[in-house]
Fold this protein.
Amino acid sequence: MNTLSPPQAAHLTDTPDTVKVFVPAAARAAPSSTLGAAAWIRKNMFSSVPSAFLTILGIWVVYTVLNGFIGWAWTNAVWEASSRRDCLDKVGNAGACWPGVVVWIPNLIYGLYPKDEVWRINLAFALLIVWLVPLWLPRVHSKVAIGLSMVLLFPLFASYMFMGGEKGAIWTALIAVGLTGFLWTVLTAVTETLWGVPVLRMVARKFGATTAEAESRIGQVVLLALFGVALFIVFELDFVEVRTRVWGGLFLTMVISGFGIAFSLPAGIVLALGRRSKMPVISLLCTTFIELFRSVPLITILFMFNTMLPLFLPAGVEVNQLLRAIVAVCLFASAYMAEIVRGGLQAIPRGQYEAASAMGLGFWQSTALIIMPQALKIMIPNIVGNFIGLFKDTTLVSIIGLLDLLSMARAVGQDTLWIGLFIEPFFFITVIYFVFCFAMSQYSMNLEKRLNTGHKR
Amino acid sequence: MAIVESSSLRPAPAQAGSWLNNAKVRAVLYQILTLAIVVGGIWYLVSNTITNMSQRGMSAGFEFLGVSAGFNISFTLIPYREGDSYLRVFQVGLANTLLVAAIGILFATIMGLFMGLARLSNNWVIRNLARWYIEILRNTPLLLQIIAWYFGVFTLLPNPRMSLAWSDLFYLNNRGFYFPGPVPEPGFGLFLIVLAATVAGAIAYGVWARRLRERTGRILPVLWPVLGIVIAAPVLAFLLLGSPLAWNKPVLQGFNFRGGVNVPPAFCALIIALSVYTSCFIAEIVRAGIESVSHGQTEAARALGVKPSRTMASIILPQALRVIIPPLISQYLNLTKNSSLAIAIGFPDLVSVWMNTSLNQSGRAIPIVAMTMGFYCAVSLFVSLVMNQYNRRVLLKER
């Protein structure tokens, strides 16, 4: 630096006689070869001879596949026929035979569920959607409570809607708890959107509560009143029993994966915390469980629960097959989830733990308020990936004889009218699976972007 | 306020019952409680199981392993006859599972590498083709793909008389895939020895060249000499020994083929579905691994005058592999576990032949489930041990 400064200084002091103002020439337009579609195509498709060759090859592959596919699925397809024989007489194997799929759509979606009772499934899923909507409303701020209530309470209510039948005192109370959660969610969403206050606090204030204590006390009373209303509604409900044996199709797939998703995240968090615990016994137990369930294929766990659960339980206790499958899927998924959560926890720098304890937070406080929110944010892609895997893995229950979407698609070909129809229903359910999984993965990417607060480099 | 409070720190009051607030005491209590619950739960299940089993007259022993199984298995890698024992059935299932896993891993790696590189291509068409190949195949269930390949492709193929043929050597029909089988003749053993010797020699040369480079900085050519020796020497030996290998070609006789090696349709479907599905995940791993090496590394290598080929081999690849290998191995493990879906199309792998057929026939639920799960646990424990070793080796090189 020092060696450079004398000449520079000399140059600066050397003032010219006349002051020349530097006027830059107008910027030239970018070369036409770098502009527009042609340039883009040249750069991205024909940058070199091998690249051009690959482009042509790729376009040829796409053309052949699409051409064949459209010919089969659209141009040559049969849209109206009464049986597969009809289709074959019309176009042979050159076109798809869609009427078989169309006729079977109700079965593909609801399985063998009685057609008169299908509205119960629709209603339950409609309620679920209503329960979900507040999570996207910007003015609603009790999102965590609503989300938790949905995951924990919706299954109680929905299982009764799906199963129906006799309900004892405890069962009635549980269903009512589920319904209370729903009523609370709807009311909270309404009051928070309109007045920005959760429903319980608003009612408490109406009754003249001024302190937080009085508010929570009156709030509890209001909640109890809601429970009373729910109990009244539940008493009035009387659904015909539908045995789980006839559950099937997309509905069954959703039930199994729904239970798996709702159970695996909390269980996975507990297991991961247990595995990282400093208490050797707890850590060892959790590690054993996680490693055992992660190292064997899901199908072996399903088989084990299917054949061995009757042995494990006292004589006379019957567990229906659907429940066995759900338990197996839940345990399997939570072992995987535990490893994902552990990965997220490991990525949190130790300073965060230390800062939390320096602020005087205990283990549960620092975990719930400091560590988990950060860890969960990092883990979103993996968690959603696990959910997608779970959704795909529910197809395995068809091997132990449950009538999930895959089994129903295979059943189409065993229908005497549509005998041998295989590719069309399989294509249809492939699209269903793909739409669900792809939507989940895209949503997770979107969520990741939205929650990214700039900690990532 | 906080300052005032912190200045009034005092020793914990020694009140009665404060031992409950002692973290160590509480930890011990929690652990005793957990252990009691778990042991109690297991004891409950075990006692139920013992009562149930004695009621049904079942036994949990392994003595049935010597008993003749008495059923046939459609595809066996190791010799098996109908009268063989259950132990043999277990071994057959094990061998089949390992065979599927090995071939599946090979194909999945090749396809995954290829698709991963295609995903990084500068060419827009290739990049997007690879992307949609990956998106579509990994977002549909594997079981669906296996069943689709089996029932939608391989069982719909023409019968042997109409089979799709390729140059009189390879045939594809609804009985499977036929290709010529090698038949070793006298002198083939010698050829194998020569082959082994050249490969060993080539590896030794490679190791020596690397040591020399690390010690002195002198770079010896490795790739071409090694390839030359490994290919030329065995070919020469093969010709000198008078081509000691005959081929047993498949020939159509009556309604079926004779001779050659037959790969049953279930095996083909399983291998294709498993390797295509796994290749999507491998492709994403390869892509992430290569993208994880910052471009600065390439630029630095160029600035130092390192040749592009050597940049890839000595700078980019070692760093990318550190990111690629752990998830890659876990995909291999997944493929091995997923091979158990063979049961859906009736391929006799371990789960199908052992946990399904043998279990239903012998009723020995506990030993059979224990042996099956034991095998998968052993594989994954072994792999994780190897991985831990690898990770330790890789981590040591970090700053």
In short: The first strand of chain B starts at residue 164 and ends at 166. Residues 86-180+249-396 of chain B form a domain with the MetI-like fold fold (CATH 1.10.3720.10).
